[in-house]
Amino acid sequence: MKLSMGWPRTLASRLSLIFLIGLILAQALSFGAQYYERYESAKNTMLGNLETDVSTSVAILDRLPAHERAGWLKQLDRRNYRYLLDEGSPGTSMDMNMPEAPIAMTSIKDAIGMEYPMTVTDIPGPQKRFQVHLKLSDGSPLTIDVRPSMVPLSPWLPIVLLGQLALMLACTWLAVRIAIRPLTRLAEAVDTLDPNTHPVLLDEKGPTEVAHAARAFNAMQARIAAYLKERMQLLAAISHDLQTPITRMKLRAEFMDDCVEKDKLWNDLSEMEHLVREGVAYARSVHGATEESRRTDLDSFLDSLVFDYQDVGKQVQLSGKSTTVIDTRPHALRRVLVNLTDNALKFAGAAELLVEKNADGSVSVKVMDRGPGIAEAELAQVMEPFYRVENSRNRSTGGTGLGLAIAQQLALAIGGSLTLSNREGGGLCAELKLRG
Amino acid sequence: MEHVDHILIVDDDREIRELVGNYLKKNGLRTTVVADGRQMRTFLESTPVDLIVLDIMMPGDDGLMLCRELRSGKHKATPVLMLTARNDETDRIIGLEMGADDYLVKPFAARELLARINAVLRRTRMLPPNLVVTESSRLLAFGRWQLDTSARHLLDGDGTMVALSGAEYRLLRVFLDHPQRVLNRDQLLNLTQGRDADLFDRSIDLLVSRLRQRLLDDAREPAYIKTVRSEGYVFSLPVEIVGAPA
Question: Structure pTM?
Answer without folding.
Answer: 0.63
